[in-house]
Amino acid sequence: MLLIVTHGYYKYMKLSIIILNYKSLGLVKNCLKAIKDLGLDFEYEVLVVDNNSSDNSVEYLEEHYFNIKLIKSKINLGFSGGNNLGIKQAQGEYILVLNPDILVLSKAIETLLEFMDSHPQAGIIGPKLKNPDGSLQYSCSRWPDWHLPFYRRSFFGRTKKAQNWINNYLMKDWNHESNSKVDWLFGACLMVRRSALEKVGLLDDKYFMYMEDLDWCRRFWENNFEVWYIAEAEVIHYHHRESAEGFGFSGIFKKSSRVHLISWVKYYFKFLGKKLPNKTL
After folding, report:
1. Nearest by Cα to 14 from 91, 89, 115
2. Which residues contact 219 (CB under 8 A, 6 or more apart)?
3. Residue 206 belongs to a domain with what CATH number?
4. What pTM, to 2 d.p., does this model score?
5. What CA–CA distances, in Å, run from 32 to 26, 222, 273?
6. Residue 276 belongs to a domain
7. Can you give the residue range of the structural domain that contains 192?
8. Is residue 22 in a domain?
9. Rounded distance, CA 1 to CA 123, Å?
10. How many H-runs (helices) and E-runs (strands) does the chain carry?
11. Residue 2: pLDDT band with limits 50, 70, 90
């Protein structure tokens, strides 16, 4: 339990919400409004980390939002580095890493907190992600192998063999309607236990983007903390995956694909020769 001195007395901070911004002020404003509209009845804080947006994000947030903690990075540190700045300053017992393109629905945060409170071995959990039309986003996955960057980021993913691999990887054989331990969770909305971070550590900032969520979940499992998908908590994710499109090798040479491949290589060599944690579903 974390107690914070405020004006000579102690108060308990339940939750820290971290939102990472990079030239996405409109999304951040919507995200902040949705959080405010929840009317959360416990002590929480909101930290917005600006990843050197080089637009008017910082000036606008400073002028219009006095109830947030604004953290300004002098350079773009990527997903891991930016969120780590927020995590280091967070004071809550639990930390919610939240993409700005997430709309938190009613009771989702309370549901996640209730699960954490009642499952002390849970180190990191994530809600059900839904598209704006209400359809399911596949946000929990089985451990990948070397096929991942090629089947997810190039024309190779159009083959029948690749589709079977992707369906298994995304757990499409499971209905996603019940809470369950999973291998790993996508990083758009993750709640972590502060006390677990003392053993697991921060996000690995060697990844600029991609694979950091996979790496983090793997380290939680390696340190005997559980990773859970919480179907009872729902959020909307306004996300368009930058997948390989077109024909030939065009998908491989897209910037997002190159970054994904670089991160995969870093992940592969980091865990080379290490045994995977036990599979879940």
Report:
1. 91
2. 200, 201
3. 3.90.550.10
4. 0.91
5. 10, 34, 43
6. no
7. 3-270
8. yes
9. 15
10. 9, 14
11. low
